Amino acid sequence: MKIQILGSGGGEGYPALFCGCKHCNAARKAGGKSLRSLSQTLIDGKLLIDLPADTLSHFRQNSINFGDIENVLITHVHADHYCLNLFETRGTDFAPVMTYKKLHVYGNADVERLFNGYYELFPIRDEIRKNIVFHTLAPFESVKIGGYKVTPLKANHAPEQVALNYIMDDGKVALLYLLDSGYPTDETLSYIKSYPRRYSCVIMDGTMGVNYYVHHMNFSEDIKFKEELCGAGVCADNAKFVIAHITHNHCGLHEEIEAYFKDCGIIPAYDGMRLEI
Ligand SMILES: [Zn+2]
Ligand SMILES: [Zn+2]
Ligand SMILES: [Zn+2]
User: What are the structural domain ranges in the chain?
Assistant: First the structure.
């Protein structure tokens, strides 16, 4: 399984659009891996996770054509994960040549509800609407999507909606994807530990850095979570542990995060990072 982390930043990007704090200014000066766009990941060039406003620049920078992608998973409808207006340029004369006529969008019930609510007020072309097919997922109910077994998990995040994390399983390896989430609840944790395949990669929420908030993980929880999974024997021997969704409010430059995790076997993501498991 090939994993491309297209965006490694938290909800407001890093540097944040409107912010002049010392971390944002340091990132603007340092550039490179300290510049983080909004959260988005692509599996094997064909299964997309989330749809932030940065999608256009991610796809341009990585030479990806969205018309070649048939399936999109949405974790939850926070704006940094679901910018539905991007659909307005799909098909018709905006994109007359596409590999897939229909785009399948998977997520919680609010993914379709938000789309329908918005375009009821500001109608979209019929031809665009009819080629976007929504599928509502429920936690712990696996579905087959484009050759993958995808299992939604109940994220400890955004309690006003059913925020989802995912296990992606291609029949050979499994990826555990926890963006966004606080430390998993006992219910989710016990499901994660009972999953029949060992995880070859875990991508975790590192939003809170050295601080704490119940609905995002911090760095010490990332270490604890890795130890908990390894202690339960549910990770492959050479499993990769990655943190992403990194924010200016709770940690510094990329090198500082690397230094924090130096002896822990956890690597901080950066925009454009590629992993193969
Ligand atoms: Zn987010
Ligand atoms: Zn800032
Ligand atoms: Zn969120």
Answer: 2-276
Say how many Å lie between the first and final Cα of the chain, rounded: 5
Compute the distance from residue 215 Cα to the ligand 3 centre, in Å.
9
Environment class of residue 168 by beta-carbon count within 10 Å: exposed (0-12), middle (13-18) or buried (19+)?
Answer: buried
Give 99-114 pLDDT, tens digit per residue: 999 999 999 999 999 9
For residue 250, report the distance from its CA to the centre of ligand 2, in Å: 9
- Give the tens place of pLDDT for each residue, 65-89: 999 999 999 999 999 999 999 999 9
- For residue 248, which ligand has an atom nearest its CA? 2
Instruction: Report the separation in Å between the CA atom of 216 and the middle of ligand 3, taken as the mean of its atom positions.
Output: 8
CA of 96 to the centre of ligand 1 (A): 32
Ligand (nearest to CA of 215) = 3
pTM of this structure: 0.98
194 by Cβ neighbours in 10 Å (0-12 / 13-18 / 19+) ranks as exposed
34 alpha carbon – ligand 1 mean position (Å): 17
Which ligand is closest to the CA of 245, given by its number? 1
Q: 79 CA distance to ligand 2 centroid (A)?
A: 18
Ligand 1 center to residue 99 CA distance, Å? 29
Query: Can you give the pLDDT at residue 104?
Result: 98
Name the 3-class secondary structure at 55.
helix
Angstrom CA distances, 83 to 80, 144, 152, 223, stand at 7, 25, 20, 31
3.40.720.10, 3.60.15.10, 3.90.70.10, 3.40.50.300: CATH of 2-276: 3.60.15.10
Task: Output the DSSP codes for 84-141.
Answer: GGGGGGSSGGGS---S-S-EEEEE-HHHHHHHHHHHHHSPPPHHHHHTEEEEE--TT-
